[in-house]
C-alpha cells in the first residue's frame, strides 16, 4: 500500500486556482449585471445570441427601408409643392387671358399682356422640368433627343415609376397625366370658326362658346366634322347644320342644337361665316398655353384694330382648355397626397415592426426584471464567496510548523 503525500505548495496552488476561477466568474457576473445583458458573447448562450443577431439584421433592413421611404417621401413632397406653383401660375395665366378679352383694350395693351403670358408659360415649363436631389425629373418624362422632360412633341414621355416594394412609394409623379392628357374644346367636341366666302377666319364678329353636351351618346358618335354655315336670305341671316338641307333664322344668343350639343353663338356673323364642330383631340398644357398666347397676339386687323370675333372665340376656347389643364394638375396633386398618405402609413408600420423586433432582440440577450434581480443576487453571493475564500486563504497561508517549534 502506497502513501500519497500532498505538499503544502501544491495545496496552495489548488487554492489559488479556485480563487482565480471564482474571481473570473464574479467579474463575468459583474460585467453582465452592469450592462443588463444576459448574453454579451455567443458563448454565453449560442441560441439566444443567434436570435439576437437575426433581430439586429432585421432592424438594419427596417432602418434601410425607412431611409428609402423618407427619400421618396421628400421627392413627392417637392413634386407636390411644385404642382402647387404650377397651379398658381396657371391661375394667373387664366386671369390675364380673361383680361385680354376686355373690349376696352387696344392691341398695344394686349401685346403687353402677351409678354406677361409668355413669361408665365416659360415659368410653367421650368416648373415641369424640375429635378429631384438626384437630378432626375420630378415628373419623369425625359426626352432623350432634347434632354427636356416635356417638349411639345411628347416624345419620350414616361408615366412615372410604380411602387417597387412593400415599403416603397413611387419616386416620381405622372407627368403624362399632369401635362399631356388635356383635351381641346369641351373635352368631347371642339368648335372652330371658318369662312367659306373668303377662305379665311370669319369676317363678322360672331364667336361661339365651347358648347354644352346634352346627349353624350350622340356627341361621342361624331367622327367627321359638322359645319354651321350662315347665309343672307333676302336680308334675313340664316344658318344650317346639315349642309344646306334646312335653314333656320339666326338669333344671337339662342342655343343651336347640333351633334348632341347646344352651341350658343354671340355677335353678328356675316354670310359665308361658319363654325366647324369636330371631336376633341388630346392637347398638352404647353400647347394650350401657346394657342392662348397666339389668340391674344394674332387677332389684329390690318388697320390695327382687333378682330373681336376670332379673339373672343380663341379666348373662350383657351379658357376651357386651361380649365381642363388645371383639373389634370389638381388630379395629379391629389395622387401625390395619396402617395404621402401611403408613406405615412408605411412609416407607422415600420415603426411598429421595429418595436416588435427590438423587443425580440431584448428578450434574447437582456435580463428581464426577474432575471436582473436574480443576477444581482447571484453576484452578491459570489462576492461573499470570493471574499471569504480570500480571507481564509490569507489566514491559512500564515500558518507554519515553525510557529509551533520552540
TrEMBL record:
One of its GO terms (biological process) is bacterial-type flagellum-dependent cell motility. One of its GO terms (cellular component) is extracellular region. It comes from the Bacteria. Residues 8-142 form the Flagellin N-terminal domain. The keyword Nucleotide-binding does not apply. Pfam families: Flagellin_N. Keywords: Bacterial flagellum, Cell projection, Cilium, Flagellum. The keyword Phosphoprotein does not apply. GO terms for molecular function: structural molecule activity. It is found in: Bacterial flagellum; Secreted. Belongs to the bacterial flagellin family. PANTHER family: FLAGELLAR HOOK-ASSOCIATED PROTEIN 3, FLAGELLIN. This is Flagellar hook-associated protein FlgL. It comes from Comamonas denitrificans. The lineage of its organism: Bacteria, Pseudomonadati, Pseudomonadota, Betaproteobacteria, Burkholderiales. The gene is flgL.
Amino acid at each position: 500500500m502506497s502513501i500519497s503525500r500532498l505538499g503544502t505548495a501544491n495545496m496552495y496552488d489548488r487554492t489559488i486556482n479556485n480563487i482565480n476561477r471564482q474571481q473570473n466568474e464574479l467579474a463575468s457576473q459583474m460585467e453582465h449585471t452592469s450592462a443588463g445583458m444576459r448574453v454579451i458573447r455567443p458563448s454565453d448562450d449560442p441560441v439566444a445570441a443567434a436570435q439576437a443577431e437575426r433581430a439586429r439584421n432585421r432592424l438594419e433592413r427596417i432602418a434601410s427601408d425607412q431611409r428609402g421611404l423618407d427619400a421618396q417621401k421628400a421627392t413627392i413632397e417637392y413634386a407636390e409643392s411644385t404642382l402647387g406653383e404650377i397651379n398658381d401660375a396657371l391661375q394667373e395665366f387664366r386671369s390675364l387671358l380673361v383680361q385680354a378679352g376686355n373690349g376696352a383694350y387696344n392691341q398695344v395693351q394686349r401685346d403687353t399682356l402677351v409678354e406677361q403670358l409668355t413669361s408665365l408659360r416659360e415659368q410653367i415649363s421650368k416648373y415641369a422640368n424640375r429635378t429631384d436631389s438626384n437630378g432626375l425629373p420630378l415628373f419623369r418624362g425625359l426626352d432623350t433627343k432634347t434632354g427636356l422632360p416635356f417638349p411639345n412633341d411628347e416624345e419620350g414621355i414616361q408615366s412615372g415609376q410604380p411602387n417597387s416594394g412593400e415599403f416603397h412609394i413611387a419616386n416620381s409623379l405622372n407627368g403624362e397625366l399632369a401635362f399631356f392628357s388635356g383635351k381641346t374644346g369641351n373635352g368631347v367636341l371642339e368648335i372652330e370658326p371658318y369662312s367659306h366666302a373668303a377662305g379665311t377666319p370669319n369676317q363678322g364678329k360672331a364667336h361661339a362658346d365651347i358648347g354644352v353636351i346634352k346627349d353624350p351618346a350622340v356627341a361621342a358618335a361624331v367622327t367627321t366634322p359638322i359645319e354651321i354655315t350662315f347665309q343672307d336670305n333676302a336680308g334675313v341671316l340664316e344658318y344650317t347644320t346639315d349642309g344646306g338641307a334646312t335653314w333656320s333664322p339666326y338669333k344671337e344668343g339662342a342655343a343651336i342644337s347640333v351633334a348632341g350639343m347646344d352651341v350658343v353663338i354671340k355677335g353678328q356673323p356675316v354670310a359665308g361665316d361658319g363654325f366647324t364642330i369636330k371631336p376633341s383631340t388630346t392637347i398638352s398644357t404647353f400647347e394650350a398655353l401657346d394657342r392662348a398666347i397666339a389668340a391674344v397676339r394674332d387677332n389684329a386687323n390690318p388697320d390695327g384694330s382687333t378682330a373681336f370675333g376670332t379673339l373672343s372665340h380663341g379666348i373662350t376656347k383657351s379658357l376651357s382648355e386651361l380649365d381642363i389643364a388645371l383639373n389634370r394638375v389638381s388630379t395629379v396633386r391629389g395622387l401625390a397626397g395619396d402617395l404621402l398618405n401611403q408613406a405615412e402609413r408605411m412609416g407607422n408600420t415600420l415603426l411598429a415592426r421595429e418595436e416588435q423586433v427590438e423587443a425580440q432582440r431584448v428578450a434574447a440577450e437582456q435580463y428581464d426584471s426577474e432575471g436582473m434581480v436574480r443576477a444581482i443576487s447571484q453576484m452578491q453571493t459570489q462576492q461573499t464567496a470570493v471574499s471569504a475564500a480570500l480571507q481564509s486563504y490569507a489566514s491559512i497561508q500564515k500558518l507554519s510548523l515553525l510557529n509551533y517549534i520552540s
